Amino acid sequence: MDFRGVILLLLVFVGYPWVSVPSAAVRTSGEDYVRPPPRATLNLPSRRTKQSSDPQQVHISLAGGKHMRITWVTSSEASPSVVDYGKLRGKYTSTSMGESTSYTFLFYKSGKIHNVVIGPLEDDTVYYYRCGGEGPEFHLKTPPAQFPITFTVAGDLGQTGWTSSTLDHMDHCDYDIHLLPGDLSYADYQQHLWDSFGDLIQPLASARPWMVTEGNHEKELLPLFSSEFRSFNARWKMPFEESGSPSNLFYSFNVAGAHIVMLGSYTDYDQYSDQHNWLKADLAEVDRTKTPWLLVLFHVPWYNSNRAHQGEGDDMRASLEPLLYAAGTDLILTGHVHAYERTERVAGGRLDPCGALHITIGDGGNREGLATRYLDPQPDWSAFREASFGHGELKIVNGTHSLWTWHRNDDDEPVRSDQVWITSLASSGCLSRRPDKLEFGKISVGP
């Protein structure tokens, strides 16, 4: 093992100091709002107990075709991977069996991770369910089949006091699905933090589907060990197989009238890669008469006027933006930069009425603090930017209009700080200007 590997091993067992927290509130030039400093990491010891069959870290996700995946962890290896469910509290009319897995990470061994797909389920309906044949009852609500539908969005969550505020504010939204563009637990090799993160989000994630993609803090790559994305893939199985993807790191799904694509910023994306080939085929199958909205999420932003992480998305943008532009992508949501920014419609580095609207929302509550330094002057494509913790809410009202709102965490109150109506490209005439779908790879955008 090389020197870097030794250092990483030491970090796993003894911990390491995170980015320091400012001792005073931060004010940026020209803004009246004074941002409070980041809050400390929560003390959330794992509730895993030896031989316990109680379901822990329960979260749900869409599994395609009116099905839902229920995921939970038990300490007991004997606990069965079974879910009983029904539409009446305490009365279960259906049972589904599933599968289980576990993983090791150096000297850590996870609990038994259960994955059970239930359904078919009725749209816009509350179901009650029980995991493992015993224990507490949970409930979930399936998404609607038609508009309107509401998404919450927050990236770079972590496990701090601000994470708690963000989750609390989301809990007061009447939403259908949560979208998370990477950086979930901030475990960073310390595997018990995956367990505490699962417990932290369980009240929300067990009731509404969470659809996630990976960020850099999910990579957890150790030299000389095959560990890349091991924890993420074991704990957060997404419907990649249902969408024809070869990898859990990128996939797509349909809900109501939206086609949503989750891409991987940290897996190959050049024109010869599996991800590029899969995306090209996936977009070619999108029927904008049935799904007039096309949304895309990944971790590293392509359009970013913050000084943090400048240029990191350039290579991915060069490879994949032509495909997304040709497909008429309406909205691209990213994280990574710990601040909020919304662009105008843009493509090829310049304003374009048929380009995507980009939103960076890597401000869910992470322990690393806010990215407060912006480029000056502000680019013409940057419409609104602010370094504050918060979450977004996207309400797709119908096939032509949606309402985007960003809620800043002002102390412990959600304050609506940015709001804009978005018109779909499917209704704007832009799609008629696109080349044939089979020619996606030949289009070029920008200068």
From TrEMBL:
Signal peptide range: 1-25
EC number, as in UniProt: 3.1.3.2
Annotated region described as Disordered, given as residue ranges: 29-56
Coiled coil regions, renumbered to chain: none
Enzyme superclass (EC): hydrolase
Keywords: Glycoprotein, Hydrolase, Signal
Molecular function GO terms recorded: acid phosphatase activity; metal ion binding
Catalytically driven reaction(s): a phosphate monoester + H2O = an alcohol + phosphate
Segments forming domain Calcineurin-like phosphoesterase: 150-340
Domain Purple acid phosphatase N-terminal: 55-142
Protein family according to the UniProt entry: Belongs to the metallophosphoesterase superfamily. Purple acid phosphatase family.
Protein name: Purple acid phosphatase
Naturally occurring in which organism (per UniProt): Spirodela intermedia
